[in-house]
Design brief:
This protein is 44% helix and 16% strand. It is of the alpha/beta class and 208 residues long. Strands 3-2-1-4-5 form a five-stranded mixed β-sheet, sandwiched between helices. Strand 4, helix 4 and strand 5 form a beta-alpha-beta unit.
Length: 208
């Protein structure tokens, strides 16, 4: 499962919108391959901005922590190099992707990932009866444990990675799909929820 690498990304930020001037304060990128996390890039980020009090209260990331962190001009090139052309995933992927693009464009750079996979959208389509699709609620419902504090990038990325692996295992078991690859997950992302079961049943010939 996932013999083609997928990078699970999570940012902590000063707010919700790079278009409104919000910046990244922490990043975690975990490479998933062959059913496990095989590599990771994790860093606090000095974005040159004041950290709002409510962000410190939510995440535990203080002004002092980011003031002593590597500058964004160092972190983003390293992050883009780590991601390369692998598939990229995140929980609520549009949020992290817009920050990745905005921070890259500030440095006249561009992400090169092959496709974007949203574990939140996947969860809604694969587990349609759950009460909530927030990361903490999903982790609780599916028996996934946080290794660290929620709302810190590495802990959130790690539980999101295990969520993606859980989804892959569920598809293999339920639909007997041997080759759960990034392209299949991206295709499920694009479908309306009601069309997902029939689509997945058609993937059975892929099974070994």
């Amino acid at each position: 499962m996932f013999d083609q690498p997928i990078i699970m990304l999570d940012f902590e930020t000063t707010g919700l919108s790079p278009a409104m001037g919000d910046r990244i304060t922490e990043v975690a990128a975990l490479r998933i391959c062959e059913g496990r996390i095989v590599d990771r890039y994790v860093s606090l980020v000095n974005c040159g901005m004041r950290i709002p009090g409510f962000i410190t209260q939510l995440t535990g990331i203080s002004q002092r922590m980011v003031d002593h962190a590597p500058p964004v001009a160092e972190v983003i090139p390293q992050l883009l190099d780590f991601i390369g052309t692998d598939a990229l995933s995140a929980h609520n992927a549009s949020f992290d992707a817009k920050f990745l693009l905005a921070e890259s464009e500030r440095l006249d750079m561009a992400p090169q990932y092959s496709q974007l996979i949203c574990s939140l959208k996947l969860s809604r389509r694969v587990f349609p009866t759950l009460a909530s699709y927030k990361l903490g609620a999903l982790a609780s419902a599916l028996g996934l444990k946080f290794n660290g504090n929620a709302h810190r990038a590495e802990a959130d990325a790690e539980v999101s990675a295990h969520l993606l692996l859980h989804i892959g295992a569920h598809l293999r078991k339920t639909y007997r799909i041997a080759n759960v690859d990034p392209s299949l997950l991206a295709s499920v992302n694009r479908l309306a929820a009601g069309k997902v079961p029939d689509f997945l049943k058609k993937q059975v010939p892929r099974a070994a």
